[in-house]
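Protein in question filed below.

…
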Amino acid sequence: MTRAHRSGARSRWAAAAAVTALGAGTVRARRRLAALPVLDPAPAQDAPRPPLPGWHLVTAPGVTVDAATLRAAADHAVREGLRVVDLVPARLDAESTLGLLRLLDPVAHRTDRCAPGHGAGHALLVSDDVHRRAGLDTEPAPSAPADLFRLVRTLKEYAPDATGWALAPGLAVPPADPARHAEELRARGLPPALLSTAQLAGLALLVKCLVSAPRWGAAATALYWLQPALVLGPVRGPRPAGLARATATRPLRAAATALRTLATPAAEKPDPAGEAARRAAYSRELAGGTDRFFEPRRPDCPWCSTPGPAVRVRTTDLLQGKPGRFTLEECRHCGHIFQNPRLTPEGLDFYYRDFYEGLGGDGTALVLGRMSGTYRDRAELLRPFTTPRAWLDVGTAAAHFCNAARAVWPDTRFDGLDMGEGVHAAARRGWIDTGHQGQFPELADRLTGRYDTVSMHHYLEHTRDPLAELDAAVKVLAPGGHLLIELPDPESRAGRLLGRYWLPWFQPQHQHLMPVGNLKQALAARGFTLLAEEHGAAHQPNGDFLGAAVLAANSLVPDPQAPWATVPDTPARRAARSTVQALAVPCFAAAFALDALRTAVARASDGGNAYRLLARKELG
C-alpha cells in the first residue's frame, strides 16, 4: 500500500469516527433536552407577585422573569421536592443551549449527589434554607452570567439531590456576549484555551477529511453543520433565538469564537495581594532548600524490619511541580514500598498545601466529584453483611464519599475525619453529620466504640504509620464492627510499565504502598476476619494511561505562575506551557481510550490498579 493510500485510509477512519461521535452527541443532546421539564405558567392575573414566600430569585443582570413563570417554577420545585431550580430560557441561543446539554444530564445529575452543578447562567430559584446555609444572605447580587455559573455549582453542593432544571418560556434574557465566553468557561470550571484549541483542531480535521475522504468527510461536516437544527428543531419547549442563522453559519461562528477565546487575556488573579503574600511565603520556605523537609534515610523496612530495601522509583513532584526529589524503595522480603527518606511533618505540610484546599481545591473537588460510581460500589460492599448505623470515614477530605453513600444508606449517620478544614465545610453542606479535624490515632481514644463502620479509602498510603492507624480503627470500632479499606495496588503491572509516571505512586504524598497480603496479615493480627476482597472492581478508571499522560505533559513545562515556581514567570514560558498542553490533547484522547480498554480488562480479570478489603472486628 502506497503512502497516499495509507493516508486516505486514515482519513476515512477519522471521518467515520467523527460521524459516529457527532451522531452519538446529537442523539444524547436530544435525549437530554427531552428530559428537561417545561414550565406551564398560569394566567398572569392569577399569579402572585414576587418574591414568593420561602424562595429567593437570583438573576443575572438584564434577566426578567414574569410572575406566572415564577409561580410555575415554585410549584414545580415543591411538586418535585427541589430546593434549587435552574431556569433555562426557552429562547436561549443555539450554541449556549448545545453547550449546556453537553455538560448537563438533567436526569442523572438530579440523582447523582456528587455531580457538579451546571446551569444556563440566567436565573435560579433557591429555597430559604439553602440560601441561608450557602451564605447568600450576605453576598452581593450577581454582576454577570459567570457569577450564576459559579453559584449553581455551589448550590448543588448544598442541595445535592434536590437541584433541578426547567425550561422557562417566560424568562427574558439579553443576547449572549461572545467577549465573555472565556470568562464563562472558567466559571464552569473548564479551561478556555484547551477547549478552544480542541475546537479548532476538530474543525481542521473536518476540512482534512473533506479533502482526503470526500464521502465520509462530507457526512461528518454535514452532521456538524446541521447539529443545532437536528437537536433544537421542532421540539416541545425551546425556541432558540436565530436557530436558522446559527445553523447556517456554525463553522464560521465556531472558529471565530475559538480564536477570540484564545486571544482573550488570562483572567487576573482574584486576590493579587493574597497571591503576592503566598508567593513570598513559599519563597521564604524554599530559601533554605528542601533537605530540611526529609528525615534521615532508614536502612530497613518499616513493615517487617528487613534490612537493605531496593530503589523502586525516583521522581520529582509531578503533581504540583514543587521543588524536591523523592525515592520509593521496596522491601526485598515482604514487598512493602515506602518513601525513603520520609518527609517530616513540616515537609508533609509544605507539599500538601494548596492541593486539597486553597489553590488546588477546585481542581481536586472536580476530580473527586466524578467518582460517584466508585463511591456507590464501596458503600454497596457492606450490603450482604450488615446495615451500618454509625459510619466514620477516615481521611474524608471534603466528604464526597459520605455524600454519595447517603443515597445507598439514607438512615446511616455519616461522620468524617481529616486533617484539613474541609470536614467543617462538609458538615455545613450536610454531607456529614459531624466533622472531626485532626490525626486519627490522636482522636481515637475519645471516639472509642462509637462506630459500627469505619472506612479508609486511599488514606492509609498517605499516613506516616499505617499500623498505628489500624490500631486506632480497632479502638473506634464497636465489637462486630466493619472496617472497609481501599488502597493502590503496588503489585499492579501498570506500575512497572509506566514507571515514575504511574499516577498511584503519587509522590510526594504517598508514604506507604502495601501489597494486599501484608495488609491482610496485619488485619488478622488485630482480630479482624476478612469478609470480602476486590481487585478489578476497585480499579480506578483513569489512573493509569491518562494519569501518566497528564503527569508527563505537566512535567515538561511546569506552571511558571505557581507561587512555588523556581523559574521566572515570562510570557514565553506561559506560551510554552499552553502549547504543550494543547499538543497533548490527542495524547489525552488516546490515553483515555486505552484506559477504557484497561478498565474493561481489569474488571474482567479481577486485576486492576487498586484493591478493596472488608473485614469484621470479632466480638470480645
Residues 273-344 form one domain. DSSP finds 24 helices and 17 strands in the chain. Residues 3-35 form the longest helix (33 residues).
